[in-house]
Amino acid sequence: MTTWNFPCPEPAAIAISKWASGSVAIAGEQTDTVTVEVVASDPRADVDDLLAQVRVTFEDGTLSVRGPRLEGLRPRRTGLDLTIKAPAGSACEAHTASADVSVVGRIGALSVHTASGDVTATAECGPVTVQTASGDIFVERIGAEAEINTASGDVQLGRASGDVSINAVSGDLTIGSAAGQLGARTISGDIAVRNLSGGQADLATTSGDVQVMVTPGIGVYLDLSSMSGRVRSELDEQPGGGTDAGLEIKCRSISGDIRVSRALAA
User: For residue 96, what are the β-bridge partners?
Assistant: First the structure.
């Protein structure tokens, strides 16, 4: 195990680069110190040479962590687990290959780029930018805008209070609640929104199904279309053709079904 400690009374800017395999864990908590710890993912592995290649610096409130050279990660090697504890509100940018990224506590801006690693954020964070090829993405609470792009990974968002843009190829997209501008597109995945309470939603899929639930009591303007799928709205019609609607929903699908209904009352 290798550790570093740096005095840091204010939120820091965390930059993680070239972290190939293993895991990355970030915690935003009440502390005046930035703590960095690196251990072998497999405690039985001999990774002293890899640990020696890790570079950690802290200057003017910016923590920089660089992983070992990729050629050093031979098949017999295990990955490295990186854990960072920083003051609440710290921002984080991480670039990994197959390493999973997890975030807890309270984090400011979060940006993660990974190939096959999963991204899990139970922290309150925002704005959020996540890009992955095959990793799954789960973000519990987003306090600002979010942009998420994935190929085959699934995306789950718990609560989003800002504008959200999600693009996927074959992954399923699930949003718990949203109140701003919501754009979600996938080719063969399904789209499910559990509670829309305002703004505009533009949802599109080719062969997947779309299910949207709307907060009770809100006027809704609907624009729904599917070429061969079933389109169903369980909302009551409003007088005036939706001119006073507080929410606009546009759904498009080629062969998938579309269903819009009221969310269950709390």
Answer: 19
